[in-house]
Design a protein that fits this description.
By secondary structure, this protein is of the alpha+beta class. The protein contains three helices and eleven strands, in the order E-H-E-E-H-E-E-E-E-H-E-E-E-E. The structure holds fe (ii) ion (FE2).
Length: 205
């Protein structure tokens, strides 16, 4: 017999070229910001620090936003999107040991994702859930060793220097930071963002 797999959910991932250099630059900036500003209150927050969401407007973070735009353009090509991406907002996260992010989606956006600045051992993975309501209700008993596209939940262990992007409607969360490291050595530091398609003048189109 033949089979087609329709309506795919793309998860894009990429390593930036020189992550050590960029992360060495980003970490002190984010750390200083976390001392300066209180955490934003967000419904998915589980004990970590969440920066204000205007990180995309701060010129000191341009070395990172450049990398994010480069990847968005690759996605536009792969996903057959016209016009161009606009970076709606962006923020830094510090998950201290014990912190996590409840499962959530990113409303009013097309592509969301994360960049990993600092990832101690056992500090928690990103997980995504099958977005279709049907398979989450009817769960047949199945054999072990199924290919990934048939799983209901998929976990992505983080790597420093990696960018992951996925459709904003895809439900996802971050496991608890179970690092045993003391002080800032145990901090899990990442940057999240939302992209939306804009027209040639930069207006949401
Ligand atoms: Fe998220």
């Amino acid at each position: 017999m033949n089979r087609e797999l329709l309506f795919p959910t793309p998860i894009y991932m990429k390593m930036i070229k020189d992550p050590k250099k960029l992360n060495k630059y980003l970490f002190p900036l984010i750390k200083a910001w976390s001392k300066r500003d209180k955490s934003e209150t967000k419904t998915n927050a589980g004990g970590g620090w969440h920066s204000p969401t205007n990180m995309n407007l701060q010129t000191e973070y341009e070395p990172l936003t450049k990398e994010l735009f480069a990847m968005q353009y690759e996605i536009y090509k792969d996903y057959g999107m016209e016009l161009k991406p606009g970076l709606g907002n962006m923020w830094a996260n510090i998950n201290y040991p014990g912190a996590y992010n409840k499962q959530h989606v990113h409303p009013n956006s097309q592509w969301s994702g994360v960049y990993y600045v600092k990832i101690p051992k056992d500090s928690g993975s990103l997980y995504v859930e099958d977005p279709r309501p049907g398979p989450n209700i009817l769960l047949p008993r199945r054999l072990k060793g199924l290919p990934k596209e048939l799983w209901r939940v998929v976990i992505y262990p983080p790597t420093e220097g990696q960018i992951i992007m996925f459709p904003s409607w895809l439900s996802h969360g971050v496991e608890m930071n179970a690092s045993k490291e003391k002080g800032e050595k145990g901090w899990r530091v990442s940057v999240s963002f939302n992209f939306i398609q804009v027209d040639k003048d930069g207006n949401i189109g």
